[in-house]
Amino acid sequence: MVLSINTNLGAMVALQHLNSTNSMLENTQLRITTGLRVNGPKDDASTYAIAQNMRGDINGMMAVKTAIAGGESTVNVALEGAVAINDLLLEMKAKVVQANQAGLDATSRTALHNDFDALRSQIETITGTAEFNGTNLIKASAANLSVLSTVDGSTIAVAAQPMDPTTLAIQSTTLLSSAGAATALTAIDTAITAVADKLAALGSVSKRLEIQSDFTVKLIDILRAGVGNLVDADMAEESAKLQSLQIKQQLGVQALSIANSNPQVILSLFNG
Predict the structure, then answer these.
(1) What is the mean pLDDT of residues 10-28?
(2) Burial 47-86 (b: 16+ CB within 10 A, else e)
(3) 146 - beta bridge partners?
(4) pTM of the entire structure?
(5) Contacts (Cβ under 8 Å, ≥6 apart) of 75
(6) Which value, to the nearest 10 degrees, does the dihedral of the CA atoms of residues 129, 135, 141, 142 take?
(7) Which of 92, 102, 142, 268 lies 20 to 30 A from 255 at CA?
(8) What span, in angstroms and rounded, lies between the C-alpha atoms of 257 and 185?
(9) If residue 61 lies in a helix (H) or strand (E), which one and from where to where?
């Protein structure tokens, strides 16, 4: 072995190995800290790019999920309002049937009409307040709604279903006369049928939104699992690697210390 005071080859090699070990130890500690095998492009450029694209898809689907949830809530509020209106119409029919009894006195007829009118006013109130996030599907001036359903911009159309007394043609019905009561019976039956059809339409689109929401959630879960398979670290493997590298680091420090002590041998050559 050549002894030189200018070049300590052993120390240089030991330092190179120690630096390499420290670098691998740093990467391993980062993987354990973040839980990710691929933390950036330098770890695995192609895998990182694929994962980032998938994360973009996930964010897009999260936006779709939010949009569908808003649509579902809007439709469900309309559904609850429609159910309440249907129940009120059934009560109104009972009043109309009573008003069509032969020989009904004026006082009773007026009382029935007042009850009928109060129920009609309640329908007006419901149609005016069955709103979610500024959207009302059952009021007189209701507009159709488009709900975002996919990341490519596709939508689910939700048709407005106005159920106010004017739309249902019961706004001017009266029970104050026998003729009015007879006309009211026909109008109420027609309104009940119309509301049943509107309920069915709202129920159908609500179910469609629910199915699309469930499907979107499943897609998000699948993509998240896919990203995990690509970039997540195997914690058991990284833990074992950490222990191995820590031991290797300690040995490297000792090797460097020994290599650095070799030049001291040169001094011994000059000591008598």
Answers:
(1) 80
(2) ebebbeebeebbeebeebbebbebbbebbebbbebbebbb
(3) 157
(4) 0.76
(5) 137, 158, 202, 205, 206, 209
(6) -110
(7) 268
(8) 104
(9) helix 45-99
